[in-house]
């Protein structure tokens, strides 16, 4: 497959490859044919610096043989493997095809390992040392790049080890989040709130919700502006897990703490994406990694009954 809009570059590279190989063959043939000895002392007749002469010592035959083998190998390789522009090669081999085949093979081999977990509840899987070792490995390979290897997240990437959830921390919600992904959207609302002063007052009110306000006069002035926010963040900023709108009345800040961070959120909004893992991970893998995530903030319940 080509990423270009037409085949010009593919054909260009293909032509350059074939012409280079043929040119090598031609060069080899011409030099083999040409007789350069012009005198009977086995020199070419060139003389430099008074007495320097160029002897005619042709390449050893085995060396010439290597050249020929290389040329033949190059042509055969290009016939069977992708190398000539858009031509796929007679074997139809591709790096992504080999990768897909290996993934399918690994999934098949691992199916019995996962089979035990598909029927188990997340709370019980989280109590199994082997499942947690698998879950940790899946997490390191697929999630740690965003959520951190300790799953504590960073600015913009939620901490998965605490009990503060954007979308809910029940096993079902965690599985849903991982499978389908999430898109958290906070629209830019600076203009709707008013001028820079109004935005500052509102930011102070938001800070007051978690007892962090530094200017109670501004906070009181900003209170009425919060109606625009309560639609998503709830009255009093309790948050709304259906929308992924974080609670504003706690001390957990996904996008930074303080007046300036809140002003930036109001003016700029946010579009934050958790990529869907279905298609990348199997259903069973998602269940195991969800159990691992659930286990980071909950005690596993080996017994059948689970309560949160
Ligand atoms: C490309 C970065 C990225 C990767 C990879 C990623 N996540 Fe996320 N994840 C996010 C972001 C960003 C959010 C927050 C989404 C939002 O703000 O709406 C999130 C949210 C979540 C949540 C919801 C947290 C809550 O408070 O409700 C869970 C659970 C989660 N991720 C688990 C995982 C797991 C498990 C993996 C690996 C299979 C993973 N994530 C891979 C970026 C990522
Ligand atoms: C349409 C729904 C919606 C409205 C309206 C809305 N928000 Fe948000 N807000 C969100 C979502 C969703 C997020 C989380 C973004 C993400 O997933 O990263 C968020 C995040 C925030 C954050 C960051 C919280 C943190 O933990 O860092 C602040 C602060 C905030 N909003 C303040 C406000 C204020 C103030 C208003 C009113 C002017 C407002 N929001 C209106 C949906 C909304």
From TrEMBL:
Pathway it works in: Energy metabolism; oxidative phosphorylation
Cofactor note: Binds 2 heme C groups per subunit.
Positions of the Cytochrome c domain: 130-297
Ranges annotated as spanning the membrane: 12-32, 61-80
Name of this chain's protein: Cbb3-type cytochrome c oxidase subunit
NCBIfam families for this protein: ccoP
Needed cofactors: heme c
UniProt similarity note: Belongs to the CcoP / FixP family.
Source organism (scientific name): Variovorax robiniae
Cellular location(s): Cell inner membrane
Keywords assigned by UniProt, alphabetized: Cell inner membrane, Cell membrane, Electron transport, Heme, Hydrogen ion transport, Ion transport, Iron, Membrane, Metal-binding, Oxidoreductase, Repeat, Respiratory chain, Transmembrane, Transmembrane helix, Transport
Function description: C-type cytochrome. Part of the cbb3-type cytochrome c oxidase complex.
Assembly with partners or alone: Component of the cbb3-type cytochrome c oxidase.
PANTHER family: CBB3-TYPE CYTOCHROME C OXIDASE SUBUNIT FIXP
């Amino acid at each position: 497959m080509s990423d270009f809009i037409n085949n010009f570059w593919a054909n260009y590279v293909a032509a350059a490859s074939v012409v280079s190989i043929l040119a090598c063959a031609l060069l080899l043939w011409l030099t083999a044919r040409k007789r350069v000895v012009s005198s009977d002392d086995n020199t070419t007749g060139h003389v430099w610096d008074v007495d320097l002469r160029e002897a005619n010592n042709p390449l050893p035959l085995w060396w010439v043989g290597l050249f020929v083998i290389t040329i033949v190998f190059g042509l055969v390789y290009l016939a069977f493997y992708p190398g000539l522009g858009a031509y796929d090669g007679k074997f139809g081999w591709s790096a992504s095809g080999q990768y897909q085949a290996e993934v399918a093979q690994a999934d098949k081999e691992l199916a019995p390992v996962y089979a035990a977990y598909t029927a188990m509840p997340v709370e019980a899987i989280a109590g199994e040392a082997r499942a947690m070792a698998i879950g940790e490995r899946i997490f390191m390979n697929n999630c740690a790049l965003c959520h951190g290897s300790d799953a504590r997240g960073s600015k913009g990437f939620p901490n998965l080890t605490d009990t503060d959830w954007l979308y809910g921390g029940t096993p079902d919600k965690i599985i849903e989040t991982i499978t389908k992904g999430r898109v958290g959207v906070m629209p830019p609302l600076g203009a709707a709130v008013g001028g820079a002063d109004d935005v500052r007052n509102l930011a102070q009110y938001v800070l007051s919700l978690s007892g962090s306000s530094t200017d109670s006069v501004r906070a009181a002035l900003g209170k009425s502006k919060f109606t625009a926010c309560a639609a998503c963040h709830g009255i009093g900023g309790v948050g709304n897990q259906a929308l992924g709108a974080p609670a504003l009345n706690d001390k957990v800040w996904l996008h930074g703490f303080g007046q300036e961070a809140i002003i930036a959120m109001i003016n700029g909004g946010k579009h934050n994406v958790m990529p869907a893992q279905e298609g990348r991970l199997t259903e069973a893998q998602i269940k195991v990694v969800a159990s691992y995530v659930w286990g980071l903030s909950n005690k596993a319940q080996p017994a059948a009954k689970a309560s949160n």
